[in-house]
């Protein structure tokens, strides 16, 4: 199962060490499919990426949106519809071999990220218009 995990840039050393144990991620789940009338895998992935990106700001207090994408077995995840229709609780470590890629804001988005996290709707709108940058798993260690 592909899981989109919100993170903070200061967690990158732990993420790349193979010792990272995030409690929550987001995925295409049954409850999410019940809400979204689409069978387009790319569209569903974009929705989940967006939810995880905002969670990195709102729930983790990250200075920039950061999402780590990993493959986990269904036995290592459990739907958490009480948190979000796309949420999954994760158990265990995320090995570096399970990480597919990362998405992160460019540094220039910092002011808008801070404003959005503080409730500034204009900053949130500007941030929503920004594309997250894609990074291969081999590049993640250099993001911090």
Automatic annotation (TrEMBL):
- Identification of the protein by name: Uncharacterized protein
Q: Which domain of life is it from?
A: Bacteria
Q: Per its UniProt record, what InterPro entries does this chain match?
A: DUF6912
Q: Which Pfam families match?
A: DUF6912
